[in-house]
Amino acid sequence: MKKFLAAFVMAAFLVLPFAGAQLQESEWLFMVYLDGDNNLESYGVRDLNEMEAGLAQGANIKVLVLFDGYSGRYIGHKGAKLYEVLSDTSTTVRSKVVEDLGEVNMGDTSTLVDFVDYCVSNYPARNHALVLWNHGAGWRALEEEREEVFKDVCFDDTDGDRLTTEELSQVMPYISSSCGFLDLLGFDACLMQMFELAYEFYDSTEVIAASQESEPGDGWDYSSIIGPLSNNPYMDAEALGRLMVDSYARYYGGDSAVTFSAIRSSAVPALADAIARFSSALINAMPAERPAISSARSATQQFSYSDYIDLYDFAGNLKTGSDDVMSAAADVMHAIDSCMISEWHSYDMETHGLSIWFNTTYPAQQYIDRYRNLRVYETGWLDFLLAYYG
User: Fold this and answer.
1) Pairing with 184, which of 26, 102, 127, 362 sits 20 to 30 Å away (CA)?
2) What is the 8-class DSSP label of residue 149?
3) What residue ranges define each of the domains in the chain, with the CATH number in brackets?
4) Separation in Å, CA 236 to CA 86, 183, 206, 224
5) DSSP track, 356-371
6) pLDDT tens digits for range 134-151
7) pTM of the predicted model, to two decimals?
8) What digits encode the pLDDT tens for the residues 219-274?
C-alpha cells in the first residue's frame, strides 16, 4: 500500500503543473473502481471501451477508471493503471494513462479510499458517482463458490482479498465526505441491491443503483450511460439513477432473469422502521402463522442465491389471520415504493427493486455472527429468522 500511496502522490505532482483544465470544476465526476484482477478482465476492457464510445467530445464531465488487470492479455498490462477516459470510437483503449501503479490490492479499502481521494483532489466536480465493478455476492461472502477467496464484492485474485460489507461500511462515510457527499453509489456486480446494503450505506450517498439478481457477464452498458450524461451533465443523482435503469432495460430487454433498480437513500430509514415492525409482528404471530409464512416464502421471487428474496413480493404474498402482520406487511410495501426511484425486471421475474436475506434453512453460525455486525440487526429481522427456523 505504501507503493500505491507513493505512486498517487507522485501522480499529483506530475499532473497538476500541466493540467489547468483539470482544475476547472466539472458537473460530474464519474469514478469506476474496475477490479479486473480475476476472470472478468476481458469484460472490463469492453466496459472501458464503452465509456470511451459514450463520452462526448468536450463534455462537462470527467470519467476516471482504476483498472487492475490480471493476465494482461486483454488490457495489455498486469497490475493497475489509472485512466482518464477520452472520447474514442475504436475498439482499442485509447484513454489517457494518468499513472501506472503496478500491482495493487483492489480488495483493500485503502486502495479504494486513495483512488477516490486522488480523483476528487485532481478533478473537482459538483456531483460525484462511484461505481464498484466486479463479482458480487450481496451482503455476505460466498465460500461455496471459491475455496480460496471469500468475497462480498471486488475480489482480487492476485492478492486473494475482497471488500467485505463491514469494511465498506467503515470507509463509506469518509469517501462520501471526501466527495462533499457522494451523489450516487453503483454496483456493477451481482446481487447487490439488498436492504442489508442499502441500510449500511444510506447515509453516505443519495442514490444506490444495482441489481437484485446476478448480472450477465457484460454488466452495464456504459456507452448508454456516459453518452446521455455527457449530453446532459446537469442531471441530478435521481435522474442519473433512472438513466442507469433505462440503460439496463434497453440492453437486456430480451433476456431472462435480469433486474435493475435505483433507490432513494433518504427513504431507507423509514423502511428500516417498517421492517422492524414487520419482524416483531411475525415473531408474535408464531407458531400459529408459521404455515402461512412458509407458504408465502415458497411463493416469493428468489434469486440465483436462493436465500435472497424480493422483500416486497414476500410481504405481498403473506396471507395470515393476524391483523398486525398484515398491517406491517402493507407498511413494508409502501416503504419500498417510497424508496424506489426506478425499477426494471425481465418478463420472467416478479421483483420490486430490493432484496433481503431469508435463508432456506436455519442459518449457519458464521452468517448469524456476520449479520449481527450489520445495521440490519437493529430491525429484528435476524430474530425473526431464528424464531421461524428455531
Assistant:
1) 102
2) -
3) 2-15+26-189+221-252 (3.40.50.11970), 268-389 (no CATH)
4) 23, 8, 10, 17
5) EE--SSSPPHHHHHHH
6) 876 654 554 444 333 334
7) 0.91
8) 999 999 999 999 999 999 999 999 999 999 999 999 999 999 999 999 999 999 99
